[in-house]
Amino acid sequence: MDFFEKAYHGKPPWDIGRAQREFVRLEESGKISGDVLDVGCGTGENALFLAGRGHDVWGVDSAPSAIAIARRRAEERGITATFLVKDTLKLYEIGRTFHIVIDSGLFHTLSDTERPCFVWNLSEVLKPGGTYFMLAFSELEPAGYGPRRIAKKEIQAAFSDGWRINEIRAAVFESHTRPEGSQAWLSSITRV
Fold first, then answer.
1. How far apart are the C-alpha atoms of 94 and 127, rounded to whole Å?
2. Alpha carbon distance 45, 73 (integer Å)
3. CATH number 3.30.70.330 given to 3-191
4. How far, in Å, are 25, 59, 97, 137, 163 from residue 35 at the CA level?
5. Global pTM?
6. Which of 80, 113, 120, 134 is surrounded by the most beta carbons within 10 Å?
7. How far apart are CA 128 and CA 106, in angstroms?
8. Which residues are CB-contacts of 16 (< 8 A; sequence separation ≥ 6)?
9. Under the phi-then-psi rule, with left for phi > 0, alpha for psi from -120 to 50, and beta for the rest, what region is 105?
């Protein structure tokens, strides 16, 4: 059983039982519009929030237990969203494109060798002119727990060809184990 599947047999730190505030703010400000793909959606809280706001939302995660929870939550709340068990390095298999892709804590789990494959897959599921919003742990967060930290320059390097970086700004990644949250980057990156 892989790390993420095993994590969903308990309560992982990132499963806060609601959408991350950063994605709520993006939607409320009108920056999220059209149909949305949530990559590494976990138990679906960000996807369910956006679907509840009227977006056509798909969520994908490699952990079957997380997708089962997301589907159950959607049914319990009467919200329509599509949830698929899918390797995020094979997003092209979805066979459709979206206006927006959101990522809450996936990119910082990828190895250096996985990143180019993931970025290529993003280009296959994001419409030209569509935007990728990524929330990832920042290198400014002290070491000692949690996932790998990501530097701004790593984000810039990963999205240097075929993409326009609109903004990389300081943000908070919320968890139920750290009430103050963790220092993160919120990136807005458009496919050109």
1. 13
2. 9
3. no
4. 17, 11, 9, 26, 19
5. 0.94
6. 134
7. 22
8. 45, 174, 175, 176
9. left
